[in-house]
Fold this protein.
Amino acid sequence: MQVEITLEPPPDAAYSARDLGFLLGKHPDRLFERKISVGKTLVFFTSSTSQKAAALLYLDVDPIAMVRGPKRHAAGSLSDYVNDRPYVANSLLSVAIARVFNQALAGTSKDRQSLADQVLPFRARVTPISVAGRPELVQTLFAPLGYEAVARPLGDDGSRPLFDVQIAGTVRLRDLLRHLYVLIPVLDNRKHYWVGEEEVNKLLRKGEGWLADHPARSLIASRALRHQRTLTSAALLRLAEAGGVEADESDPGPQHEAERALEKPIRLHDLRLDSVVSVLREHGAASILDLGCGEGKLIRRLTAEPWVRRILGVDASVAMVKRAVKRLRLSREGATLSERVSVRLGSLTYADRRWSGFDAATLVEVIEHLDPAQLPALQRSLFGRARVGLVVLTTPNREYNALFPGLEPGALRHADHRFEWTRREFREWAESVSAKWGYAVDFRGIGPESGDVGSPSQMAVFKLETASRRTG
């Protein structure tokens, strides 16, 4: 796989095309070879005159090194790249760009910094690359960034067509490299390495100055983060805080209408909120942090309770926060309610100083929307950092699903649920959390109990043991 970068100055330019070597940190008359974790990279100039210079980065993948190397990953992820697929341009090429052109990617040049800061007429060619979706996706991704983009078909790898992608635009070199770094794996819609929270930071660093305003930012974030909803929401949240993301009014929120319809005959949604309010009242919680607040239904109930002095609702969805503000009429009811209630964007997996100092925190049917790999981050943020005195958490009881008419065996109540726990699984998880972070935990059922399957929802009430010592 390869990427070629070409610079052709206009006739009256005050610089030479050969300056591309200074910008990339590579001498036009030499061959550069470097080993990286996935193989070997070669950089050489296919053209080097004052009118035109073209540098080609070629990546020769070493499948043995990928499989046997110290950073090998879980089975199923590497097979796409090593066995069945040709070596099409993908996230491996992005890694090579970052390793070989690291200074140019950072926007620095030892000898031509003023030129590195200028927009120049660059062309880039990436080949071969598979496009997950229609070929028009190339235009969708690159045209808003000011490029002319062409995708020429090369053939078919047996599952997806292959293309020779060429883009041309007047941009800074660092921006061109960052666009390629992010968008090559987005076109391919696969990544060869584990994607975690650090990948959000990496995406936002490489996307600084352009991703927030890109009309396809949601698609880019989702594909770049391997369709992990929690990570994608966190990325879009941070873009929104920078002022670049408009709310998606079609966002259905944590509980979809299909799930509500399923539970409506037993009034489970109302029973769940009643149970949570009852626990908060029982413990005299005057300040409450509602995590994953959605459109604010629990908050609305709590505002009617005279013993509640302060409520902060947090949700990762821009649309849900807007909907909650509108439902609660926070912008119209004057200072009285606004002094007690606020709703903010926030991610459950990032420590937030705003969470500290509350009597209680609630997570009502929220954790099942997180990827299991994100649960330790939630634990650290809430139980480890915020140290909220009381945590009330509810989640579906998977055993009860057998009693819902029309729900197929083994199906989850909502398509966005990442898991649904049995009572035993929930108890084991909650007890491990309480033991690690110094909480006592009690369990309760919510809704009608039926035989061996229990209640439709289950609740854990965590209470901080004041004499306990923080661990972990």
User: Anything to note?
Assistant: The radius of gyration is 26 Å. The chain has two domains: 2-224, 255-471. The chain is about 35% helix and 20% strand.
